[in-house]
Amino acid sequence: MESQHGAAYRVHLALSNLKSIDDDQLSSEDREKIAEAVGSLEEVGIVEIR
After folding, report:
1. What's the mean per-residue pLDDT of the chain?
2. For site-directed labelling of 8, which of 26, 42, 44, 50 has its Cα 20 to 30 A away?
3. Rounded CA gap, 50 and 43, in Å?
4. What gap in Å lies between CA 8 and CA 22, rounded to an integer?
5. Looking at 1-50, which runs of residues are DSSP E strands?
6. How many domains does the chain have?
7. What mean pLDDT comes out for the span 16-23?
8. CA angle, corner 15, sides to 47 and 12, nearest 5?
9. Which helix (H) or strand (E) holds 44?
10. What is the domain extent for residue 31?
11. Distance between CA atoms of 44 and 20, rounded to whole angstroms?
């Protein structure tokens, strides 16, 4: 049970960090990579909750 909470926390932390990046200073390629990473982490987060 503890490892599930730890994993969920790490997913949440990664999402928070990615969402806090000021994408105005990034290239379109980097913005796309971040969007893909956020989408993947959100999917993982949904699976973890269930």
Report:
1. 85
2. 26
3. 11
4. 24
5. none
6. 1
7. 92
8. 60
9. helix 28-49
10. 2-49
11. 19
